[in-house]
Structure formats: structure tokens, C-alpha cells
Amino acid sequence: MPVFPGDPPVRIRILEDMDYINSEIETGLHAGTHIDAPAHLNCCGETVDRIGLERLTGQGFLISSKTVKIPDGDIAVLRTRWDSKWGLEEYFKDYRGIPMGLAEKLVDHGVKGVCTDGPSVDMPGETAVHRLLLENGIWIVENIKNTGLVPERFRIFVVPLNVMAEASPVRVFAVTD
Ligand SMILES: [Zn+2]
């Protein structure tokens, strides 16, 4: 699996395959689709296990070029279409992040979390948007895919491991009625 430049590779190794299979995984916690908890930029901030499940599920709304209104207290999903580059070298280069003005609006509307279909909510080499969101208790999910399949509104589930760490791999899925 491609990982952010400089991050450790993901490895799954079979330890035992005689009567049964027993394997181990070695991974950075920011590989693939993953959540950044407030502890990512502040060691005293919340770790993933401290984020209650009620903050990880709820109503999701899509942010695309057509978005006009941001609902209060829901989960934002950014459709930038950058996920079409997943697997290509350019995926981790020259990505755009979220404009600071939009990030400030998301904070003002008290969103629970922000998911993006790119590798970061920041521009390459920057951390200001991460900092603003995480300091306001808003978790971030990076590297989601298939944002083209969801309508404007949907139910969303973000399911991390219950780990005392600054990040975790997640499954993210939407339910539409
Ligand atoms: Zn991350």
C-alpha cells in the first residue's frame, strides 16, 4: 500500500501456517485511510480511544464546489476527487488541502469531524489547518475514497481501532436511504 513519503511501509507477515494461520501487521498509524486525533499535534490532546463513538457517527454532508450551506454539528466529507490519483506517485505531491477560510467555517459550525479524499487537510509541508481543527476537538480523516458515490446528505460511520495513540487506521462508510 502506498504511504506518505517518509512513513514506514505496511507489512503483514504470516508467523504460523501449519494447522492454522497466525499473522502480524506492522504499520504506521497514518497509513491508508486513517484518523488524526487531537493528540497528533499536541501530546496532551485526546488520543483516539478518548473520542466517543457518538462523535464518530451521525449525519454526514458533502463539501464540493457546489456547497453553499454548512449544517451545524455534522460530519464534513470533502469531495476533491484527488482520490482518483491513489496509487500514483503524484498522489502525495502538490495536493491542495482545505483553504483556511473553509476550515474556519467548519469550526464555527461545530462539525464533529472532517474527512478528505486527499492525503492531508493541509497543503504540503504545512500544519495550520490540522492545528485549527484538532485544537477545536475536531478529528480528521485522510485518504478516503469513493466520495463520488455519496449524495449531499447521508449517515456516516467512522470506525477506528480503540487505541491510546494519536492516530489509527479506520473504516469509513456511508449509508444512504
Ligand atoms: Zn494523519
UniProtKB/TrEMBL annotation:
Highest taxon of the lineage: Archaea
Pfam families named in the record: Cyclase
Classification via InterPro entries: KFase/CYL (IPR007325), KFase_sf (IPR037175)
GO terms, biological process: L-tryptophan catabolic process to kynurenine
Signal peptide location: none
Annotated Gene3D superfamilies: Putative cyclase
MF terms in GO: arylformamidase activity
This protein's name: Cyclase related protein
Organism name: Methanothermobacter marburgensis (strain ATCC BAA-927 / DSM 2133 / JCM 14651 / NBRC 100331 / OCM 82 / Marburg)
